[in-house]
Amino acid sequence: MIQQVSVKLRAVRFTMAVFTLFTLLLGACSSGNSEKEENKQEEKLETVSFSYSEVTGIGKDPVYNRRDPSDIIKVGNKYYVWYTRMDSPVRAGYWGTIWYATSEDEGYTWQEQGMALGLGAEGKFDSHSVFTPNILAHSGKYYLYYTAVQPTPGNADKAFENNSTNDFTAIGLAVADSPDGPFERIANNPILEVAVDTTAFDSYRIDDASLLVKEGEIWMYYKGRCYIDGKEGPRRTKMGVAIAAHPAGPYQKHDGPILDHSHEVLIWLKNGGVASLASINSSINLASDGINFAPIQQNLSHIPTAPGLYRPHLGNGNPTNEIPGWGISMKQSKGEAYLLRYEINK
Asked: pLDDT tens digit string along 169-185?
């Protein structure tokens, strides 16, 4: 009898833990007000969980690796996702071009449509690799944000070393009249570069743009690595934000980082504020003003890797602020990287 009670208690605790995590992501949590928390406890509880499923078209592939998917938008009856594609067995994001795919069944079946953006011209900031794309539909145009590198300055073979001294990154932008392209680089690329001050959190790497339209302005969240952190930079990645009146900029950086331990940038609108998943320490954070983040759930497990969300508020034709229930993430193992679908189940 004691053993049966113990098993039942463990089951209840597990159910409650899963519920707490995913109701936060779905928007059921508050910003920490104790009175609201008490009210929520009186609400009818629903158990939710993540489930993962293989996809066709952009899933496992013997020739190509696909990684770092963008957020997903819907145009007409099609869902669109952009991602980095490279030849196997290369897995790192510093060798690739940007491709895209479409789906008509909410992300289960995809058709790869082709390359959305290739390498920049020789000598340009994006002449070696373009990767980690994201998208924004605004005023009838489609803005494709991406990270890029050029060959390591001074390398005799014009190769990219992926070092910790002078392999700087930058964020570029291309624009099209259709989500199917053609995407053309804007004249004032790159639109965001590393800080000159070597002590700044984003003085060595700047990457992974994620967009919001907030109070008529474009908020571009991104991750940064500090020059003086050297090889320790990846584990000390922080998130920042830059704001502009127009998708093409000019962008004004907020002074300093706004969220620590945020190697992958994932944001969404929530209760009038901005929520973010910080991947390094597996926490969900909320900022009512979009800047001053505070954790609302910590020590999460089994979170998606390099995820993109279906975010209807990124598309002009679907401006809802509701939190989406599915997205595309990445799986990386034994020399291959591919995309799969995740869903938040009630």
From this structure: 999 999 999 999 999 99
Residue 134 vs residues 118, 153, 171: alpha-carbon distances, Å: 15, 27, 11
Q: Name the DSSP class of 56.
A: B
Residues 70 and 83: beta-carbon distance below 8 Å:
yes
Domain ranges in the chain? 52-345
- Please give the class, per CATH, of domain 52-345: mainly beta
d(C-alpha 275, C-alpha 277), whole Å: 7
- For residues 318-333, average pLDDT: 79
328 token code pair: 């595309």
CB proximity list for 42: less than 8 A, separation 6 or greater: none
HSE at residue 44, side-chain half, CA atoms within 13 A, is 1
Q: From CA 210, how far away is CA 309, in angstroms rounded?
A: 11
> pTM of the predicted model, to two decimals?
0.85
Q: Is the peptide bond before 295 cis (omega within 30 degrees of 0)?
A: no
pLDDT score of 263:
86
For 228, other C-beta atoms within 10 Å of its C-beta total 11
